[in-house]
Protein: MurR/RpiR family transcriptional regulator
Organism: Acerihabitans arboris
Amino acid sequence: MNDSELQNEMPRGIGIAPYIRIKQEGMTENESRIVEWFLSPGNLSDVSGIKDVALSLGLSEAMIVKVSKILGFSGFRQLRSAIVEYFDHADHDITAELSPNDSPEDVVNKVFNLTVRTIVEGQAIVDANVIQQAARCFFTANQRELYGVGGSNSICADVQHKFLKIGLRCNAYLDAHLMMMSASLLQPGDVALVVSHSGRTSDLKQVVSIAKNNGAKIICITHSSNSPIAQLADFNICSPAPETPLLGRNASARILQLTLLDAFFVSVARQDIELANKNLEKTSSITKYLKRDYK
């Protein structure tokens, strides 16, 4: 879902939080702080006035109005209504950040609750048409490359494994130098699938720029269609997970990315489901010997 589509089809209820996180990309520190305050449970109610919000944040009322409009709302009141409705729809525990006083049960529950919340919110704004178009592009490509660094690199390895099972060969690389070498050899008719939560990693952005300049199509999985890497992409699949330090970027964001990539994988397989099933049978049967119990 791109930025213009988000403005024309603003979600309601549970979808408003991921919509706001996507729009948050590129904001100043104070603007972003206002957004985080809005999305924190208990801060805003249907009787909260703009003066009270400004005092709580130590900022001007004009700044609150400005952020409301950046997010696509007519003003503070419309934003307040949407945020209140969002929390009304969030029927599970949304207090996600860990506390030193948490019991073992609290820790487990917070991890599960945030994961469920992230997936439900991601589903509320996912654009199935974009996934389908990207899947067709990936299926028909001559060469398929997978790019991701850090934690996203392991996600690329998982994707490579999935596609090999159905007979679609693609390559994942362990370091940026190999990615740049790969990107330098791409050409029209090829495709690069890029995974990056931040959408800002400098080395990865350089890799994507090289691939783009060589005429390859870019499919991007990242938190916002406004992120620098996403701006280079032909297809953006957004994964706007909460930004909590331990549970958001490092946990639920990965799970949402894997879920979206599973949807992408199935969409690619459906381009020729008979061939996918035939190859899956081949690759599954050939590895059965690894499961034998030798005595």
